[in-house]
Amino acid sequence: MARAAVQRRLTWLRARLADNLPESPRVRRLVFDVPDWRGHLPGQHVDVRLTAEDGYTAQRSYSIASPPEDPRLHLLVEDLEGGEVSPYLTEEMQAGDDLELRGPIGGYFVWSAAADAATPADQRRPVQLVAGGAGASPFLAMLDHARRAGDPTPVRLLYSARTADDVLGGDLLGPETTVTLTRGAPPGWRGRTGRVDRALLQEQTFPPDARPRVFVCGPTVFVETVATTLVDLGHASSAVRLERFGGTGDPA
Amino acid sequence: MSLVSRGFGRRRSATTDDRLPPGQYDTGDRFPVLSAGPTPHTPPAQWDLAVRGEVAAPQTWTWEEFRALPRESVSVDIHCVTKWSKFGTRWEGVSVDTLLADAGVQGSHVLAFSDGGYTTNLPLDDVTNGRAWVVDTYDGQPLAPEHGGPARLLVPHLYFWKSAKWVRGLSVTPRNEPGFWETFGYHDRGDPWREQRYSGD
Ligand SMILES: Cc1cc2nc3c(=O)[nH]c(=O)nc-3n(C[C@H](O)[C@H](O)[C@H](O)COP(=O)(O)OP(=O)(O)OC[C@H]3O[C@@H](n4cnc5c(N)ncnc54)[C@H](O)[C@@H]3O)c2cc1C
């Protein structure tokens, strides 16, 4: 286990919204200027803090969707009906508005070209990404970064989305990506349909004997199910890293 | 000197609850899950619990031996660093005081270690004098694997990552040694009332 201690203080930073763009019918891309940002690694997240007039505050975590090379910080936020924070971020916030955030947070759910550089290209363990819904966000940072850095590490993304319109990151997804749609496919759809189950994982991800480094991100139930299946298929537990976004279906 | 977010207001329960530490919300009946890797499934026959490290007499208990130790029931509020809190959770298990009683502890801290390689560090003061347990029962039922079963540490006065799931023992250490999340920048102690989420808080 890496012992790279990240022992520095995380202070709240002022972030100014530069753009609030539709990424899909349910997800907005929030683009921030954060003057005091000290950089991040692909896979890390920020904590966002909102403060009401009466002093009430709410904090939530959001993965960073942009690579370290991008001077602006991109978040992909799903508008959850009835939610306290996500509807505010997606519907209320306009360019020029400020909020507070701090980060980068999390040093475990990370894949960066710099971390790979120490290992000769032909000895690198491949990277397998598995996303559910908005869980694609940190993987867009990883893919974008790997591409810009010219990282030759073999990588695949298996990405479960509801419909074709819900797929995030459009242009960034290349031949490494297999999308599966869980709520029906449009005419002419050439990807997969149905949930990420054992058969799909066997068919569309690196096998255990390729010793991939596996990252799974999305709603808690999705992550839990996929992780269990991967271990059943023979992946070492220590090779599987998880990021859970939460969600109504949490096991009670 | 917080920045006020124009038009933002509380959407959760309007009453402030003095059981809620700063920055937390009440998750109600839900019990969210957080861990860095897949859930291990260790059968009782392969499970044991150890106290080792800076002790005069290392200890181990098989599952049956552990189940035969004096048990306590606790009802406590728990607080996760991912912002949810859950009130009045009911657990049963063995006090850490009981586990350390015959070990002859010589160090100042413990590093809890778990199946799957997870570790977390705690000062001895935070796990003794009735402040910590190894629990195997939640709400009257065997603790489910996704919540740390067969047994987890329970240190309710600290953020819940300190309550190591799938715990297999306590290593007594002569000084503070950062555990898993602590190495990645999470706070060494993790007191929710002081909002000690990350290193330096
Ligand atoms: C490390 C981490 C990274 C995250 N990254 C992202 C990200 O990149 N993009 C993103 O959109 N979210 C992300 N999340 C989730 C995010 O932090 C919030 O939980 C989410 O935006 C809901 O907040 P809210 O205040 O709108 O809803 P709340 O008021 O907290 O909840 C409202 C309702 O929505 C349900 N709900 C809460 N979270 C989810 C969920 N994830 N999916 C479905 N239902 C839910 C609740 O059960 C509740 O019924 C991340 C969470 C973590 C822990």
UniProtKB/TrEMBL annotation, chain A:
Cofactors (names): FAD
Gene3D superfamilies for this protein: Nucleotide-binding domain of ferredoxin-NADP reductase (FNR) module, Translation factors
Entry keyword set: 2Fe-2S, Iron, Iron-sulfur, Metal-binding
A Pfam family reported for this protein in Swiss-Prot or TrEMBL: NAD_binding_1
GO MF terms held by the record: 2 iron, 2 sulfur cluster binding; oxidoreductase activity
Cytoplasm as UniProt keyword: no
Coiled coil: none
Domain FAD-binding FR-type: residue ranges: 10-111
PROSITE patterns, sorted: FAD_FR
PANTHER family documented for this protein: NADH OXIDOREDUCTASE HCR, PROTEIN RFBI
Protein name listed in UniProt: NAD(P)H-flavin reductase
Native source organism of the sequence: Geodermatophilus obscurus
Automatic annotation (TrEMBL), chain B:
Location of the region described as Disordered in the Swiss-Prot/TrEMBL record: 1-39
Oxidoreductase molybdopterin-binding domain segment(s): 37-181
InterPro entries noted in UniProt: OxRdtase_Mopterin-bd_dom (IPR000572), OxRdtase_Mopterin-bd_sf (IPR036374)
Protein name per its UniProtKB record: Oxidoreductase molybdopterin binding domain-containing protein
